[in-house]
Design brief:
mainly alpha; 2 domains; binds iron/sulfur cluster; single chain
Length: about 400
């Protein structure tokens, strides 16, 4: 196989925030320090070497990029201040921009102000479109009939459109990543589906990636808890991350259940239901979990609680802000729905909530949120190698 060398790779990576890794002289301290690096996935030194010699395809096909949880232990061990931890984060941003086909991720990462402007514009366009379809008479209705203000059907079809666009762009990126990783790992179709044993191994690896690691956060919790400075449990990174993941998934599940109950005619749209109602209960608990996680991430980055939070980029803040607004406006809608005298602000908060939630999904393949697609794929290959 021909090896293509990209002489601009290192310069390009610097645009994504990589520190000056040309200072690295391959001593290997970082790899020796990293608690997640092992024989099946050695990093970060190997990734830095790829960047230094221009092996772009090797870098983009490295499952190791996504096996790192950004604890910054390696950065503290580096004698030349090459900041390998931040290099890994920058390389992930570079990978997201390289996998997706539109070039939007590159703009968001390398021109953060323009990226922010695009983000605000997308939300504004979504909100304006919904507002032009709105039944403003609903503002004076005796009950807070939110779905009269912005019709349920419109939200439904806009939501389907946003999901379809996200799935298309995301699928493109995932296919590119799978092909690059499979090529580098030497994994063929036969190796995952060629025999009953291969299918069983692939299914086990999929469970490890999705259930044990993505949902259970096993490696993050057990192997990567040795952060440079010990953190109290309430702000330990794996827990804050897990609460954010579980909260988001819970809210997604509550939305699906709610929609299903409305389709079945069990529940009328836009009506307040008791707090113990399944979708409401799940949504409230999940919302609290999400708000806790995202708020702690934001405060931690703002206050620079630990070395892991010393560097923040515009894309970090963009994702956290979108998640935080979605969670907060969700609770504000709940308050509005339960208020005896429905407040008029409830309509506008509802509009903001729907617009931002849709933007979150629409922008998923292009923002830091894309790691929810790529990390499980990388962990699948990682688990597959372990089960070989
Ligand atoms: S940031 Fe942590 S997990 Fe990532 S390479 Fe460095 S030591 Fe390993
Ligand atoms: S510790 Fe620093 S100098 Fe040594 S290999 Fe890692 S990045 Fe390079």
């Amino acid at each position: 196989m021909t090896t293509v060398v990209d002489v601009d790779l290192l310069a390009d990576l610097k645009k994504f925030g990589a520190a000056d890794v040309s200072a690295c002289f391959s001593c290997g301290n970082c790899t020796a320090t990293c608690l997640l690096s092992d024989n099946d996935a050695t990093f970060p030194r190997r990734m830095i070497r790829y960047a230094q010699v221009g092996l772009k395809d090797e870098l983009l096909g490295s499952k190791e990029l996504w096996a790192c949880y950004g604890c910054a232990l390696c950065t503290q061990s580096c004698p030349t201040k090459a900041d390998p931890g931040e290099f890994m984060a920058a390389a992930r941003r570079y990978a997201i921009a390289s996998y997706e086909p539109t070039g939007l991720a590159r703009v968001i990462y390398t021109r953060p102000r323009l990226g922010l402007l695009i983000g605000v514009l997308v939300a504004a366009v979504l909100a304006t479109f919904m507002l032009t379809q709105a039944d403003l008479g609903g503002l004076h209705a005796p009950t807070l009939a939110l779905f009269q203000f912005v019709p349920n059907e419109l939200i439904h079809w806009l939501g389907i459109g946003a999901m379809a666009a996200m799935v298309l762009a995301g699928a493109w990126g995932v296919v590119r990543m799978v092909r690059a990783t499979a090529r580098r790992e030497g994994v063929t179709w036969e190796a995952v589906a060629g025999s009953r044993e291969a299918v069983r191994r692939a299914a086990g690896a999929a469970w490890d990636a999705l259930g044990v690691e993505s949902l259970g956060q096993r490696r993050f919790r057990q192997d990567c808890d040795g952060e440079p400075e010990p953190e109290p449990l309430w702000r330990r990174r794996w827990l804050v991350h897990a609460l954010t993941v579980w909260g988001f998934l819970g809210l997604f599940g509550a939305t699906i259940i709610d929609y299903g109950l409305e389709l079945l005619g069990v529940k009328a749209t836009g009506t307040a239901v008791p707090i113990w109602y399944p979708s409401r209960l799940l949504g409230t608990v999940a919302g609290l979990s999400l708000m806790y996680g995202v708020t702690l991430f934001m405060v931690g980055r703002w206050r620079r609680w630990s070395a892991t939070q010393a560097t923040s980029t515009g894309s970090d803040w963009m994702l956290l802000t979108l998640l935080w607004i979605t969670g907060l406006t969700g609770f504000a809608i709940e308050v509005a729905l339960y208020a005896g005298q429905p407040p008029a602000w409830g309509y506008w908060v509802f509009l903001l909530h729907v617009a931002v939630a849709m933007e979150l999904m629409l922008m998923l393949p292009f923002t830091k949120f894309a790691h929810v697609m790529y990390r499980p794929v990388a962990l699948f290959f990682y688990a597959l190698a372990k089960r070989a």
